[in-house]
Each structure stands twice: as structure tokens, then as C-alpha cells.
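Re: that chain you flagged

S.,

Sorry for the slow reply, it's been a week of failed gels. I finally had a moment to sit down with the sequence you sent. For the record, here it is as I used it:
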Amino acid sequence: MARDRKPFHRKSLRHRSRILAATAAALAIGGTLLTEVPVSAAGKPKGHDVSSHQKDVNWSSAKAKGATFVYVKATESHTYRNPYFSQQYNGSRTAGLIRGAYHFALPDKSSGITQAQHFVRNGGGWRADGWTLPPALDIEYNPYSKKKCYGLSKARMAAWITAFSNEVNRLTGRRPVIYTTAHWWNTCTNSSSVFTSKHSLWLARYNAADAGALPSGGWKFWTFWQYDNSGTLPGDQNLFNGSLAQLRQFAKG
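Prediction finished late last night. Pasting the C-alpha cells below so you have them in one place:
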């Protein structure tokens, strides 16, 4: 198995969410799946997220194609580090993109505190310079086991996320953005409102006219929407729910 296993992660998440979303979208628009930015989100700042699967990214090209921000995979569990992280994270900044780092969680491998520390040590930092997005926690269906919630109860999963968040906040001064799907969140957590009051939502939903229903627990809107796994920009396609000025302010904190 490749050292960066992100393609398997996204396939695991997408395989579940994309089938339903793609079918609904096809029916809604006469059988033609959406391949461009959804009409309902036109005008919102475009961005993407990458991992070592994209290797060395041509950042000037991405910027020329309209990218304003990017999230770069830094780590997974408590041992893996993206070998292309420096080129992707620093290169995107040099090209003029607002960038941030994300961590792929494997809650069955180690504690939230341990994984948060590994993440921050290996790129998951933050500073209030207007160019650095808050750290992000990627938590979704288990790509390596049929235990979709990693064998954790809803209460234990919520506790794991809380521990990760608290440690990232202690080390960086920012709460992590939470990346997930509505279905996973509703299935695998206790939908506690403590997350929605402190964490911005990065919602994944593909081939749909809009971001759809939000996870239960109190979120009123999405901050980022990952609407497809391929497109004009390298990696997954994303939108920010606001203006470019608001994106800069969000980064600054």
C-alpha cells in the first residue's frame, strides 16, 4: 500500500456518499451529472485540497485557474507524514494562495491527543497572518476496516474528537475545522452541539446542486464545501462560503 493512502480514504467516503448524491443529481437535472462549480455556489472563492497523491503541484497553474485557497494533507494517525508537504504547503503560499494543513484521523490507532501532537509537529500549525487557514481534522468512514466508526461508540468518538480539538487549540491557538459528511457525523458521533459552537464545518457532498443537509448537532451553515473529487484544480474541489475578504479574515482569526 502506498505511503500516502488518501486516495483510499476519499474512495471510502465517496463510495458511500457519491452513489446517492450522484443519482439524485442526475434525476434532478435530466440525467446529466454536474462537473463544474454548482450554480448555487457561483461566485464563491474556489479552492482545493491535495495530498502526496498529487505529488509536486504546479501552483502557478492552479492560481491561474482560479484557486484562492488550498488545504494540504500533513499527517495521518500518529506516524505518517506527507513527503510532499513542504512543496505543497510552501509552494502554494509562494504562489499567493491562502493555505492550511489537515490531518486524517484514525481514532482506533491512538488517542486524540497523540494524533494532534503528531499533526502540529509536522505542519499543522497556525498563525494570524491572513495566509494560514486553521488546522483541519479529516474524520470520515474507516477506509481500512468494515468498522465504519472505528469500533468506537458515539460517546467515545465525541470524546476522541474533543481531545484532538483541545490539544490542537492548546498548541496553535485555533480550533480545527472539521471535515466530514452529514451521514458519517450523524452515524458515528453523538452530534453534540459543543462541536458546532467551536468548530467550522468542512462538508463533503459530491455531484449535487447544493451542499445538502448539514450534520445534526447545530451547525447553521458550512464554511467549506468539498463538492467533487476532480475538476479544474489538482485534487478535490472546494468552495468557501463567503467572499475573498471574508476568507482572509477567517484565516486571520
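What I noticed first: The chain is about 35% helix and 20% strand.

Talk soon,
D.
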